[in-house]
Design brief:
The complex is a heterodimer. Chain A has helices at 2-51, 67-74, 78-109, 115-127, 130-145, 149-176, 178-187, 192-221, 224-229, 237-245, 249-280. By secondary structure, chain A is mainly α. Chain A has 2 domains: 2-65; 68-280, MetI-like fold (Orthogonal Bundle). In chain A, 34% of the residues are buried. The longest helix of chain B is centred in the middle third of the chain and has 18 residues, at 167-184. Classes of the chains: A mainly alpha, B alpha+beta.
C-alpha cells in the first residue's frame, strides 16, 4: 500500500512538473522563432523587393520579375566593379599568407613566447578607425613608394585580413603540432625545404584555405576603405552597390542579393574545407583510439 | 650492427637551471640502455641532446667513434620514436614509413620493397593505405617504429613510446620491441619513468636525478644494491628509516623502533652518525612471536593485502610510528591474521646503509 501511494505521489509530482516544462519549451521556441524572423525578415524583404514589379501599397509585391537582376548585371559598371573586387581580394589572398605563414611557423618552431605579440600586431589594424587607417596607408605608401590606389587597397585588405589568416593558420599549426612533426622529419633526414613542402604546407592548407575564403567574404562587403583609398578612379562592387541605391532601390536590392549569394557560396566552401579538415586528418600522431 | 655511443660530461641549461649536468654514458653496440628517472630529471633532455634536437652547452657526443656534438640531427643517422609518435597526418602508413627513403631520393622499387619489409616486421601489412587517425594507439606506435628503422639506423632513440598506451598493449609492445632490438642488433637508448619497464627491457639502466646520473647498472644490480639514497628510494619498494649506527661489542647495529638490528660491517666507521637504513620487503621473514624470537623487530599485523602470488603485510613495529612492509608468498602469509603479534627477521646483508 505504501509503495503504491509513493508511486502515485511521484506521478502527481511529474504531472505538476509537466506544465512548467511545457511552458519553458514553448518560450524557447518563441524566442528562437523571433530571432530567426528578426534576422531573416530584412533579407526576405530585400529579396522580395528585388523580385517585385510594383510593391508600394500592398503587403506582398503585386507581381514578380527578374528584370532588376538583368538590369543590374547588364549595367556597364557591374562586371568591371566585380572584377576589381575579385582582383583586390585575390591580391590580398596571395600576399597575406605569404606574410603570415612564415611568421607563424617561425614562432611555432623557434619562439613560442612571441606568439601573443604577433597576435596583438595582427589585430592592430582593426583597432584603428577606418579613416585613420586609410590616411596612414596613403601617407606611408603613396608619397614615398608611389604605390597605385588599387595596390594600396590590396595592401589595406592584407592588413585587415591578418587576424583571420593568423587564427586560421595558427589553429592548423597547433592541431598538427608543427614543432614535433618538424623534429620527427629532421630525424628522418629531411631539410627545411622538404619539411615545408611535404609536411608543414599540407598541414596548414586547411587553415590557409579558410583564411583565403574569409578574405573573399571581406572584399565583397568592404565599402568604407575602398571608397577612401581607391575612390572614384577604381570602383569596387560595394561602391557600385552603394551608388545604385541612389538610382533605383530595386536594382540596389538585386545587387545586395547577388552579393549575399556570393558570400553564401564562400561560406559553403568554408564549411566544406572545415569539414574535410575535421574528418580527414585529426591531430598529428595522437592516438585517437586506444584499443 | 648497432653503434657504440659515448657521452662525455654533457651539460645543458635552460636559463639558470641546469637540465643536464655532467652526464657521461658508455653504451656498447647492440645494448639496450634505459634512462630512468622521475619527471624533470633530465632524461628526455639527454636523449634530445644525443639526437641533436637540442644543442649541448658543454660536452661531447660520439657515435661509432665519430664526434657528432655539433652535427645537425638530419646528418646523425639516428632513428627516433617520439612520445606521441609524431606520425605525419597527411600521409598514409606507407608514405609515413617511406618518408626517409623519399627524402633520400631512393628509387621507387627500393622504397616499395623496403616499406613492405618494415610493415611485415611490425605486422602492419594490411594497414599500408590507412591514415594515422584511422589507426589505434598501438598501431601508430608500430608505424612510428617502422618509420624510424627505414634507413637502418645503427642507433635508435625512444622517448617514452609506450606511456600513452593501456597496460595490455604496453606489455605486448614491450616484448615486441625487445624482440626487434635483438633481431636487428640495434643499439637502443630508451627513456622512461616506469621502473618496471626499464627493468624488463634493459641490459643496463641509468638512473637519473636532477640532471645527473645517480647510478648505472644492470636491473639486478640496481635492485639488489642501489648505491645512492635516491636509487634506493626510486627503485622498487623499501622500508627506510633515518637512524644511527650503534655498536654492540664489535658488531654494528642500527636502531629500528625499540629494536637493534645487526647490519653488515662495511669497513667505514659510522658510529653515532645519522644514516639512512633501507631493506626490501621481500628480504624479511615473519614468524609467530615466541619467547625465543622476541629480541628483534616485534610488532602487530596492521594490514594484509593480497596481491596474487605475493601478500603484503603492514606490521606496526614496537617503538616505530610507521609500519614496515613485508612481502611473503601468499601460501605462507595465510597463517597470519590481523592484529597478530609477530617477529620480523631481516638478514644483516639485506640492510643497506647510506650516509
Amino acid at each position: 500500500m505504501a509503495i503504491v501511494m509513493a508511486a502515485e505521489e511521484t506521478a502527481v509530482q511529474q504531472m505538476r512538473r509537466k506544465p512548467r516544462a511545457q511552458v519553458g519549451s514553448i518560450l524557447l521556441r518563441v524566442a528562437l522563432i523571433a530571432a530567426v524572423l528578426y534576422l531573416a525578415l530584412p533579407l526576405l524583404a530585400t529579396l522580395a523587393f528585388s523580385l517585385a514589379t510594383v510593391w508600394s501599397r500592398t503587403v506582398l509585391p503585386e507581381g514578380y520579375t527578374l528584370e532588376w537582376y538583368v538590369a543590374a548585371v547588364m549595367d556597364d559598371r557591374f562586371w568591371p566593379t566585380t572584377l576589381r573586387t575579385l582582383q583586390a581580394t585575390l591580391g590580398a589572398a596571395i600576399i597575406s599568407p605569404l606574410l603570415v605563414a612564415p611568421a607563424l611557423l617561425a614562432v611555432h618552431l623557434r619562439a613560442p613566447k612571441w606568439k601573443p605579440w604577433l597576435e596583438f600586431l595582427s589585430i592592430v589594424p582593426w583597432a584603428l578607425p577606418g579613416v585613420v587607417l586609410a590616411l596612414a596607408m596613403i601617407r606611408a605608401y603613396i608619397s614615398p613608394f608611389n604605390v597605385s590606389r588599387p595596390g594600396l587597397l590590396i595592401l589595406t585588405y592584407v592588413l585587415l585580413s591578418l587576424p583571420f589568416m593568423f587564427r586560421s593558420i595558427d589553429a592548423s599549426l597547433s592541431a598538427i603540432d608543427a614543432r614535433t612533426l618538424s623534429e620527427a622529419a629532421q630525424m628522418l633526414g629531411a631539410g627545411w625545404f622538404d619539411i615545408g613542402r611535404r609536411i608543414l604546407l599540407p598541414g596548414i592548407m586547411p587553415g590557409l584555405m579558410s583564411g583565403v575564403l574569409l578574405i573573399a567574404a571581406l572584399g565583397a562587403g568592404e565599402f568604407a576603405l575602398a571608397s577612401l583609398m581607391a575612390g572614384s578612379g577604381w570602383k569596387t562592387f560595394p561602391i557600385y552597390q552603394a551608388q545604385a541605391q541612389g538610382v533605383d532601390g530595386r536594382i540596389a536590392s538585386a545587387l545586395a542579393i547577388i552579393g549575399l549569394l556570393y558570400v553564401l557560396v564562400v561560406s559553403l566552401l568554408l564549411l566544406f574545407v572545415a569539414g574535410r579538415n575535421r574528418s580527414g586528418t585529426g591531430a598529428a600522431g595522437m592516438p585517437l583510439v586506444n584499443k | 650492427m648497432g653503434a657504440s655511443l659515448q657521452v662525455r660530461d654533457l651539460y645543458k641549461s635552460f636559463g639558470e637551471a641546469a637540465a643536464v649536468n655532467d652526464v657521461s654514458l658508455d653504451v656498447s653496440p647492440g645494448q639496450f640502455v634505459s634512462l630512468l628517472g622521475p619527471s624533470g630529471c633530465g632524461k628526455t633532455t639527454t636523449l634530445r641532446l644525443i639526437a641533436g634536437l637540442e644543442r649541448a652547452d658543454e660536452g661531447e657526443i660520439i657515435i661509432d667513434g665519430r664526434e657528432v656534438t655539433h652535427i645537425p640531427p638530419q646528418r646523425r643517422k639516428i632513428g627516433m620514436v617520439f612520445q606521441q609518435y609524431a606520425l605525419f597526418p597527411n600521409l598514409t602508413t606507407f608514405e609515413n614509413v617511406a618518408f626517409a627513403l623519399r627524402v633520400d631520393r631512393e628509387p621507387k622499387e627500393r622504397v616499395a620493397s623496403r616499406v613492405q619489409e618494415l610493415l611485415e616486421l611490425v605486422h602492419l601489412e594490411k594497414a599500408a593505405q590507412r591514415y594515422p587517425y584511422q589507426l589505434s594507439g598501438g598501431m601508430q606506435q608500430r608505424v612510428a617504429l617502422a618509420r624510424a628503422l627505414a634507413m637502418e639506423p645503427p642507433l635508435l632513440l625512444l622517448d617514452e613510446p609506450l606511456s600513452a598506451l593501456d597496460a595490455a598493449i604496453r606489455d605486448e609492445l614491450r616484448t615486441e620491441l625487445r624482440r626487434l632490438q635483438r633481431h636487428l642488433d640495434l643499439t637502443v637508448i630508451y627513456v622512461t619513468h616506469d621502473q618496471a619497464e626499464a627493468m624488463a627491457l634493459s641490459d643496463e639502466v641509468v638512473v637519473m636525478e636532477k640532471g645527473t646520473v645517480s647510478q648505472v647498472g644492470t636491473p639486478r644490480e640496481l635492485y639488489d644494491r642501489p648505491a645512492t639514497r635516491f636509487a634506493a628510494g626510486f627503485i622498487g619498494s623499501s622500508n627506510r628509516r633515518v637512524t644511527r649506527v650503534e655498536m654492540a661489542g664489535n658488531r654494528p647495529m642500527i636502531r629500528w623502533g625499540n629494536a637493534l638490528l645487526p647490519i653488515s660491517p662495511n669497513g667505514r666507521d659510522e658510529r653515532g652518525e645519522a644514516v639512512l637504513a633501507a631493506w626490501r620487503p621481500e628480504s624479511a621473514t615473519v614468524s609467530e612471536l615466541t619467547g625465543a624470537n622476541g629480541s628483534g623487530l616485534v610488532g602487530s599485523v596492521e594490514l594484509i593485502t593480497f596481491l596474487g602470488p605475493i601478500t603484503r603485510l603492514d606490521i606496526l613495529v614496537d617503538g616505530d610510528p610507521e609500519p614496515v612492509l613485508v612481502d611473503l608468498a601468499s601460501n605462507t602469509a595465510q597463517s597470519f591474521a590481523m592484529g597478530q603479534r609477530v617477529a620480523v627477521t631481516v638478514p644483516p646483508e639485506a640492510i643497506r646503509i647510506y650516509s
